Amino acid sequence: MGNAASHPPDKPVRTISEVIRSTIQERKLTAYALAKLSGASVDAIQRFLNGERDLSLANADKVAVALSLELAPRS
What we know:
It is a single chain. By secondary structure, this protein is mostly helical. It has one domain: 434 Repressor (Amino-terminal Domain). It is 49% helix and 0% strand. The chain contains four helices and no strands. Helix 2 (31-38) packs across helix 3 (42-49) and helix 2 packs across helix 4 (57-66). It is globular, with a radius of gyration of 13 Å. It starts with 15 loop residues before the first helix and ends in a 9-residue tail after the last helix.
């Protein structure tokens, strides 16, 4: 089983939070719009986007589904 230390040096490791945050920004979604799409609270999403708190795993799941993101093993 691989870990972050074994990733290729030319590909920086991105956390799930980084992928979610960058996808929200790229799609220019507001916390309100994403809350409506995902069912997560506006407050939780806004605090996440402001860097004040992390998303709970349950909210990360909801947001990832709403953004059509998948978690896949590295190739």
